[in-house]
Input
Amino acid sequence: MTNKYTDEDVLHLSYEIIQLIEQNISCFNDEEAENVITSNESISFHVENDNIDRAYIEATNLKEYLIKLKNNKYK
Output
């Protein structure tokens, strides 16, 4: 199976996700933190199994979730 996205695409998104987490971690409640951890584990699973497209989709979803959390916390 050929992946539409590359490892570098996922790596770039991961960097953005790390930045969002670092900037906002103090604002996360326990449930939100658990959701972030679970999503990260899912991304790792897909990367390890060479399903880069699915990892990219999961990373995109996590980034959007983190942006949503950030925007809701600073309203």
